[in-house]
Design a protein that fits this description.
Distance between the termini: 56 Å
Number of helices: 20
Largest sheet: 5 strands, parallel
Helix content: 40-55%
Radius of gyration: 23 Å
Length: 491
């Protein structure tokens, strides 16, 4: 049995390892939110460049801000940044690869100053983010920065030691400005429409509250490229770790598993240079919006369509639901009749082929992605991925029945009890508000959608309200599968 502890590279048949000298790698990127997706995506692309003899000055320093990031710090510190990326093929086989592009990891609660100075260093030219949809501290109704949260208020106090990503990044930019060092690019890799624009809006809003002159400097000098990122990356299970050890004789404290497919479309707007990402298949474009909307409203929204209906129907994994012909028909109907009409032309993409490929990807049994994972954080995900589809279709007189049915399936799921009477662990930052509302909806069917913090004024729209009440009644009376059958039959 071989191990990555101490930064040792294994010598195992079938396991790729970095072909470059890691001691020659220097930090050029500081990344907030080192989880499975970052390690299956951005860090993998940087590692691929390094294996081609490029980008050795673009090594990654990971940063954890939340208490739950402590374990990642412990694992990556013990393994000197190494980890195994395990691609799960549709035939069930594994293709492991040791990635070496992360060369440092800092846990901000231990030393905010170290994190700030790492970003303030002239060698750092990109600060990237996978802080989740909820990490941008946005009011879901107004779309603006929510400045009145306890963490933000604390970071805005004079002389406060920063604890949030906003406080840390803004302080680093302030020091670069004071020292005459050019600013870094802030590159969001989160599943948000206009993720770069969102980052620009929120970081600048925080800076304006802290120092208006700094905010003006950021607006004029810092680039925030939009991007579209795509790779299904389920949470690593104990079985995944064990299988890596059993089949390949490799012990890894926290490997990452993912599907074979990967895509990254990135706007080519960088304040202080970038790695030659195009050399490893990244699509560099002037405008990422068409690609972004395609992914959010077809892939991400379809995940939500599978998640609640599938769970309530008794499934555990995404591939089980996607492999069910009824649900596959439902997905395709949503994509064709409701998701696609909200999109503009996507250069170089055959949308019919893309949608077919999506269902095939969802049905890959090797990935074993759980419905519980894609149902996590529903209030942020539904708000960003599905409600915009409904609003667009209402405005243009299009169909909304399937997307609205998904909203109703979320509301039914949020009751916290499945169709067999077993408890559902509803994981959502608004669970304390939404679960009690959902549990009143058999007597008050509009209770859930009257929550304006999530739905705004949608409940006042007659078409939406009628479609929602029909679907919710069907879910309560006939169950999830029967409701999906009716929605398929509707067109």
């Amino acid at each position: 049995m071989q191990t990555l502890a101490g930064g040792r590279l294994p010598e195992i048949d079938g396991v790729e390892v970095p072909g470059y000298d890691r001691s020659a790698v220097t930090v050029g990127i500081v990344h907030f939110g080192v989880g499975g997706f970052h390690r299956a995506h951005q860090a993998m692309y940087v590692d691929a460049l390094m294996n081609q003899g490029e980008a050795l000055e673009w090594g990654i320093c990971g940063v954890g801000v939340l208490p739950g990031d402590r374990r990642m710090q412990e694992v990556l510190t013990e393994q000197e940044g190494l980890y195994t990326l395990v691609v799960k093929q549709p035939d069930g086989s594994l293709a492991p690869r040791v990635v070496g592009s992360i060369v440092e990891y800092l846990f901000a609660p231990d030393s905010p100053e170290a994190v700030i100075e790492k970003m303030a260093a002239e060698s750092t030219r990109i600060v990237s983010l996978t802080i989740t949809e909820g990490g941008y501290n946005i009011d879901q109704v107004t779309g603006e920065f929510a400045e009145d949260t306890p963490e933000i208020r604390a970071d805005l106090q004079p002389g406060a030691e920063p604890t949030t990503v906003f406080g840390l990044v803004t302080e680093a930019l302030a020091r670069r400005r004071e020292r005459g060092v050019p600013p870094f690019t802030i590159m969001s890799c989160d599943n948000i429409q206009g993720n770069g624009d969102t980052a620009a809006r929120t970081f600048t809003a925080f800076a304006r509250l802290k120092d208006p002159e700094l905010a003006t400097w950021i607006e004029k000098n810092v680039d925030f490229p939009n991007s579209m990122v795509d790779r299904i990356t389920p949470a690593t299970s104990a079985e995944d770790t064990k299988r890596l050890a059993d089949e390949f004789g490799l012990t890894d404290g926290w490997p990452v598993v993912c599907e074979p497919f990967t895509q990254w479309v990135l706007e080519d707007h960088f304040s202080s240079g970038r790695p030659p990402f195009e050399d490893v298949g990244v699509q560099l474009v002037d405008d990422v919006v068409p690609y972004e909307l395609m992914k959010l409203r077809l892939l991400n929204a379809s995940h939500q369509a599978l998640g609640y209906f599938g769970f309530l129907s008794g499934y555990t994994y995404v591939h089980e639901v996607a492999g069910d012909p009824l649900f596959a028909r439902f997905l395709r109907a949503y994509m064709d009749r409701e998701g696609t009409p909200t999109l503009s032309e996507v250069p170089g993409v055959d949308l019919d082929a893309y949608k077919t490929t999506l269902i095939e990807r969802f049905a890959n049994p090797g990935v074993a992605d759980t419905l519980a994972r894609i149902n996590f954080g529903s209030s942020d995900r539904i708000s960003l991925w599905l409600l915009p589809v409904i609003r667009h279709q209402l405005e243009h007189g299009g169909e909304i029945e399937r997307a609205t049915g998904v909203v109703a399936s979320w509301a039914r799921y949020a009751e916290g009890v499945d169709e067999k009477g077993s408890p559902i662990d509803v994981q959502d930052r608004l669970a304390d508000t939404l679960v009690p509302l959902a549990r009143t909806q058999r007597e008050n069917p509009e209770a859930f959608i009257r929550n304006t913090a999530v739905f705004g004024d949608l409940a006042a729209n007659d078409r939406f309200r009628e479609a929602y009440l029909w679907a919710l009644d069907s879910l309560h009376r006939d169950g999830a599968r029967a409701t999906v059958e009716k929605l398929v039959e509707r067109g």
